[in-house]
Amino acid sequence: MSEHTMSRRSFLAASAVTAGAVAAAGALAGAAKSAQAKVISETSSVWDLEEVGAPTKTESCDLVIIGAGGTGMACACQAYQLGLNAIVLEKEEQTGGSFIGTEGLFALGTKYTEESGCTLTVPEAVNNCMEYHHFIPNHKLYQRFFNQTPETVQWLENLGVGFQGAIAIGDGEKDWHVYQRDLKKGPGATFQDSMRAAAEKLGVDIRLATPAKKILMDGGKVKGVIAKADDGTVIEFDAPAVAIATGGYPQNKDFLYAVSETRNQLILPQGVPGNDADGIKMARDAGAYMAEGLGTVMWCGPCFNGAVWTHMDYCASVQPTLWVNQDAERWINEDRWISDFAGVGLAQRNQDRTYNIFTENDLTAWEQTGPYGMVFSFVKPGTPMEGVREQIDALVDGGTVFKCDTVEQMAEATGLDAAALKETVDTYNQYCDDGNDPDFGKAPEHLRRLEPPFYIGQIGDGYYTTCGGIMINANCEVEDADHKVLTGLYAGGSDAGCLYGDSYDVKLAPGSQASWANNSGRIIAMQVAKQLGRFDDPVAEARKFAQADGTAAVSSAADKK
Fold first, then answer.
1. Is 224 strand, coil or helix?
2. pTM attached to this predicted model
3. Cβ within 8 Å of residue 325, ≥6 positions away
C-alpha cells in the first residue's frame, strides 16, 4: 500500500483511534468541569445559601447592584450617569465595604505618572502581569482594564476623590496613586466618603442593611434578586441585570480554607467585616463557573496576633528581624516584605506556624529612628514609631508576644524545639557578623545580631482580601462552565476571577485590586447600558463624565434619561 492509499480496514482503524481521541478529549473536558464539582460536593456546606421565605413585596429596576464597596459604588455612580435605574443592596449599615482599607490604586498614563517619571506602558504592564501570573488571566480583560485606568482616575477626581500623587511600593514603578486623606479616617475611608457624597448628589438608591439572598434566573437569563430587609421583609427586585460586588470571601475563613491551599494555622484578615462569599455563592447557585485560582488571596504577610492594622504593633510585625517556622527554621529572606509583601504572604501560607523574633535593641531603634523598612504609607525610616513600645507591651500583657532573657525561654513559651531554635539564632548571628546571608541573600544592612532580651510572637499570615472568583469575560459578564454568558449577570472587584494566578501582583501593579474594583464597576454599568439598548456606544457616553473639566460628572440620572 502506498503512502497515498489506505485500505478500508486501515481507514476504520484510524477512525476508531480518532473517535477515541475525541471521546478522550470530551472526557478530559468533562473531568475539568467535574473536578470543580467534586471540590464543591466535598465541601458543600460552605456553599449553602440562607433560606428565606416567599417575597411579600416586589420592586422593579434596570440593575440591582449587590454590595456598596469600591466596585458597587463605582458601578452605581456610572450607572446613574448613564440614566440607568439602579438599586444598590448593602447588607451592612454603611457603605464602603473592604475598600475603606485601601490606600491607593494602580493606573498608567495619568498626570500623576507623568509627574512621577513613570514610563511604563499599558502593553508592557499587561505582558508583565500575564507572565507573572503564568498566563492564567484573561488577556482581553487585562487590556480593557489597564487601558481604562487613566480615564477612571480623572472620572474619580470629577466625582470628588482626591489623589496625592503616584509613588512606588518598594523598588517598583511609581504608578501607585495614593489618595488624599482625612488623617482621622484614613485614605480608603476618605475616598469612600467622597464616593458616597457623589452618589447622594446623583440620587443613587442605596438600601442599607438589606442583604441580597438569591439571584433569580430564567433560562440562563437574569430575572431579578431576592433580598431581606432589616425588618425581615422579603423583597423581590425584578431586574434584567445584576452586578455582583460583595468583596469576595476574606472574612469567611471556612470558605477560604476550603477553596485554597493555605495551611498556616493562623490567618488574620485585615479588612472590615461583611465579605463572606455571599456573592460568589449566589453566582454559583445561578449557574456561574469559578475561574482558575478561586483560592487566590491577597496576602500581606506577618502580623502579630492581636496587632491592629495601621498601628505600630502591626508595623513591628513586618520588620526584617528574624522569622522562623514551626521547626524553628527560617523560611524566607525577611527583608523581602519591603519590596514584595504578597510574595512573603504566599510563602508564609505554606508554613504551619510562623514567629517573629526581635530584641530590645530593635524596639529602641524603632522608637528613636523609625522602622528599618517603609510600611506602606503608615511610617517610613527616619520617622519614630510613636507608641510602638506601649503597643508591644500590650501584646506581651495579652500573652501573644513573649519577652524572654534566653533562647530556651523563647522555645518554652512557643513550644518550639529549643536545640533547633538555638542553632538557628546562632547561625543567624554568625551571618550578621559576616555581613552575608548565604541561605536567603538578605541584604547586609538588615542583618542585625540578636542579643537579649528577646521578644517572640506568633505572626499570623495577614491578608486584605481574596482575588479569585467567578469566571467572567472582558465585559465582566459571568460565564458558565461552557463559557456561555449568563445574560444580565455581571461580577467585578474581589468577586471576579480571571485576573490573577496564585498571588496578588503588588510588585508589578501596586493597588491593582483597588483599581480593578473601580474600573470593573464602570465596565459593568457601561455593559448594562449596552444590554438594555440605551446607547449605541455606552463607552463613549461614559467617557464624557471623565472629561478634564468635570462639568458632567455629577449630572443627575434624570438629566440623562
1. strand
2. 0.87
3. 331, 351, 352, 353, 354, 355
